[in-house]
Amino acid sequence: MIAQPTYQAAQTVAAVIAKHFEQHLTEECIKKRQQLAPTPPASVIEAIIDIAFWSSLRREEGYSPKISLAFIPVERAEQPLMFENRLPLTPTILTKLSPAVERPGIHLGVWYKQGELFIWGSTRNIPGNCFVLEVIEPGLLVVKHRRLDGFGKFVNVAILKGDQVKIVDERAASLPNYPLIMTSLLGFTTPSAWNNSTNVLVQLAVSMRAHGRGGCLLVVPSDSKNWRESIIQPMSYPIVPAFSQLADVIRQEKNATSQNDWLSKLSQTVDGLAGLTAVDGATIINDQYELLGFGAKIGRSEKSGRVEQIIVTEPIVGNVPVVVRPTQTGGTRHYSAAQFVYDQREAIALVASQDGRFTIFAWSAQEGMVHAHRVDSLLL
After folding, report:
1. How far is 372 from 364, CA to CA, in rounded Å?
2. Comparing C-alpha atoms, which of 133, 170, 115, 107 is closest to residue 52?
3. What is the pLDDT of residue 195?
């Protein structure tokens, strides 16, 4: 029988997560005529989280476990790596196995029979609505699922850090004036839309956060040069003519002979562009994905006033919007991004901090001020 969990947060969140998979994903799969992955009951979710949490606090040869667990029977996985004998799902076993499966994209397959949870092997291919629990670092767990269209960053459902629990608010995507990149991060985009500008921004955000140096990416309209009024001239590293490699790769998708090869090339190109954001100053691209420059210093436009206040939200259940001075959201990089969006209201700014925080600044016509969307919980 499944042991009684002792991690309090697992007991708190299990029912909410089970409801998400039962309702939202079931409806989406039926709508898109996709085969459903089995949905774990709340008691199983609670047990898996409990075991993963205690595993995360252990160490193997000086390393903390980094593991991804997928709740799926072996017959539903594609090209599974199967153990001859199934292994019990315990903190000890997970800690021992973690070095073999810590690379991105590898999931330990978890299933249960006669009330016992066990590991049957590993797989790289899982259905879009499959329950996944990822151990990020000691005490930090993320419940997620693959996008139903199969491509791109997994969609986060809940984040558990010690005794803190964050449930992603699906309703946030329906708010008026909500930036499309936020809708994409929450998982509410169609399969045909993933490789458009909105969704590639998600990949850029993930890559920016991954390099760990902090950075700022400004996305400006391609049909206007007004953004130059908010950049101190001369720019440190202007690109002339605009570098269009990422735009070219996106356009090649329809004619690609191999989808995997195209995805690999897209990922490499995204990482190359995101790497520029590690240079001091802002990287600038237009909405056609052409690189215009990097290392740019943001300055207030002579036609604009100083940004005095912004609204800050996080798409987490129970979050309350707050209006603050822009200096309260972070350092110089955050303040400059807020000022840029205040001046250039058709632009957006993506800002990564060295500590992993990530903020998207966009103008909100409804609020009449810059809206800072805290999204680091969605990028884990």
Report:
1. 9
2. 133
3. 41
The reported pLDDT for the residue numbered 194 is 38
| Cα 29 from Cα 178, distance rounded (Å) | 25
By three-state DSSP, how is residue 125 classified?
A: strand
- The two beta strands, 155-161 and 164-167, are antiparallel
Structure token pair of residue 175: 């708010």
Q: What tokens does 190 get?
A: 């169609």
| pLDDT tens digit sequence for 282-320 | 999 999 999 999 999 999 999 899 999 999 999 888 888
In whole angstroms, give the CA distance from residue 134 to residue 137: 9
3-state secondary structure of 216: strand
Buried b (16+ CB within 10 A) or exposed e, 153-178: bbbbbbbbbeeebbbbbbebbeeeeb
Per-residue model confidence (pLDDT) at position 202 = 84
> Which stretches of the chain score pLDDT less than 50?
188-198
pLDDT of residue 62: 84
Q: Residue with structure tokens 């299933």?
A: 111
In this structure, what DSSP letter does residue 295 have? E
Cα distance between residue 52 and residue 231, in whole Å = 47
pTM: 0.84
**For residue range 7-25, what is the model confidence (pLDDT) as tens digits?**
899 988 999 999 888 876 5
Residue at 252: amino acid letter:
Q
SS3 state at 213: coil
Return d(Cα 306, Cα 292) in angstroms, integer.
25
Q: Rounded to an integer, what distance in angstroms lies between the CA atom of residue 310 and that of residue 324?
A: 6
Range list of β-strands (E), the chain = 67-71, 81-88, 107-113, 116-123, 132-137, 140-145, 155-161, 164-167, 215-220, 237-243, 282-286, 291-296, 310-313, 322-324, 348-352, 358-364, 369-374
